[in-house]
């Protein structure tokens, strides 16, 4: 087959996986990346002896696609302890392993979060979901997650103390309006796998995929202005003619005719502070139920020592909704951290804030996968991205693979 010009717009996870799969099909794509490195939303900065991920993200080790494309050992994955530390203003308690062995949870801690019946229901739900395939979960009924939890019979106590703060941090929305399909999928993944981070930051994941590429080329700092048919126009005005284009960013950014077709994405603010030492002192997520700025906190160096090389502890704080200017937000978060920890606000030294306007796509009809025929949007133009399926690392990888299959197939069918 003569050399085909295939361009991939965006070198995030979907774009990288698409390139990898195209190479397996004997093609050599060119990736056009607007920034100076791969990864899209998954990047890690090194600042003052800290590693800062752009937004608190974890890899679930049960994700089927992650197992296929990543070498967990080489990433030096560090697992979180399952469960959470719950802060209720003047007290904190640890609930271990609520998703894996809910019936083994003994003692008082759980009874402050939920009832004995909640444990039984958690166990039952875990067993039910393990029997369902991921495809079955995503083709099943869809109701808002908060409704699903109530109808399943969970107590208000466990919904507000555990489910709400835990899943708010995953869905990046306050009211758990996200489809129950997504909840069931994530719940199943957490009961089968571990939440983990690569030893040296989430940015190692796209870097690992990039290293697997051999014949692809990546042009950095090459933002695309528009894609019209098979003509790509760069911000510089340069025009590129393609045999096939895979758009691996949300396509309304580069295709005028798709503007207004996508609901606004979920956004998040992620603030980093350094302290003398971690007040959690365990590789666990801390949840702050109720209506606060702070949704969840993690001392990243409790999970992986490599996140801090300067002897101080690195605290990641997730804030879901706030219109406060940065200085005020920092002060308000420090005040909440003082309430949570009993450590004076000024001891939390601000390191950096990330405002992530596109943290997760908002998807109305969640799917696990689509047939490759659905990846094509116009002649010669194909789409990849988690917004096609569901907001997850697994979906980003799946969509990249499907787009590549569609492109490879399109060449086969023209011969």
Automatic annotation (TrEMBL):
<feature type="domain" description="Amine oxidase">
    <location>
        <begin position="13"/>
        <end position="408"/>
    </location>
</feature>
<dbReference type="InterPro" id="IPR036188">
    <property type="entry name" value="FAD/NAD-bd_sf"/>
</dbReference>
<dbReference type="GO" id="GO:0016491">
    <property type="term" value="F:oxidoreductase activity"/>
</dbReference>
<keyword id="KW-0560">Oxidoreductase</keyword>
<dbReference type="Pfam" id="PF01593">
    <property type="entry name" value="Amino_oxidase"/>
</dbReference>
<protein>
    <submittedName>
        <fullName>NAD(P)/FAD-dependent oxidoreductase</fullName>
        <ecNumber>1.-.-.-</ecNumber>
    </submittedName>
</protein>
<dbReference type="InterPro" id="IPR002937">
    <property type="entry name" value="Amino_oxidase"/>
</dbReference>
